[in-house]
């Protein structure tokens, strides 16, 4: 399966640079996953497409201010670290830039020495493992020195940092937001529950696996980086009950999807568990957990576009994207939404 099969042309002006004033005012493109039929609406009306007893699964991860700008102690060369994964205690896997200037033993200082990082391992693809040195509480220092790791296609400054956070974000650890969830407000979540739709939370800390580009022509040879997930006991029990009773399970975002499919493929049922997943979902994948997906519009040639293509078909998805482009939908993280049902 060639990567070019997942390419499409997107006018740059359709890449959303800022979030809408009201989260749930974004446009919603509804697609029937079987026949590709399309319908347009506004996100706040998404409750009209659920039935009582349906399950809505959201990723409650919280984005950390994961981008740090510092300098090498000896040369004063500027170094950028993007924190991706907490390996243990104060050891983190980070994406570094410029990678070639770092070596094992290199010391980087941030905030006039408030925080230091020692490179303890140099890996491939710009990745390093560092040990942070500080006094006090790490997350408080990170809040002071770090910035939100907005994607590189967003060029405008985000005035309100909470807008790159879902309203239900709870468990700290992501290097990027699960952006499908950005459309929900507390009021909309209450309305959903009042209609008898069950809201269930899982956790996947978004790291390199979600947004790393595919760099091989044959996508089946692409290797996903692993990301940490948690499925709690109460969530597993509710999901198993829904499956047994034939109720629909809708994932909010590709990250929630990856948690549910990882667990179902590994155990054949939902169960309390946690660990790292490098599941790669592309056309031909057999979905065992979810019935539908709420998601944003994804980058060309991305693993996220491949995942949504697997749920319907590559042809249906690319036709829907062409329709969205013609209708001037807003794309990517701060863009509009799609409900594949």
How would you describe this protein?
With 341 residues, this protein is of the alpha/beta class. It folds into two domains: 3-63 and 160-340, QueA-like, CATH 3.40.1780.10; 67-145, Thrombin, subunit H. It is 21% helix and 28% strand. The chain contains seven helices and 17 strands. It has helices at residues 138-145, 186-194, 208-211, 233-244, 253-267, 303-311, 314-326; strands at residues 27-31, 38-42, 55-59, 61-63, 67-72, 78-88, 91-97, 107-110, 115-122, 127-134, 171-174, 198-204, 227-231, 249-252, 273-277, 292-296, 337-340. The strands form three sheets. It has a nine-stranded mixed β-sheet with strand order 2-1-17-16-14-3-12-13-15. Helix 6 (303-311) crosses helix 7 (314-326). It is globular. The model has no long low-confidence stretch (mean pLDDT 96).
Task: Please render the helix and strand layout as text.
Layout: E1 27-31, E2 38-42, E3 55-59, E4 61-63, E5 67-72, E6 78-88, E7 91-97, E8 107-110, E9 115-122, E10 127-134, H1 138-145, E11 171-174, H2 186-194, E12 198-204, H3 208-211, E13 227-231, H4 233-244, E14 249-252, H5 253-267, E15 273-277, E16 292-296, H6 303-311, H7 314-326, E17 337-340
Helix pairs in contact: 6-7
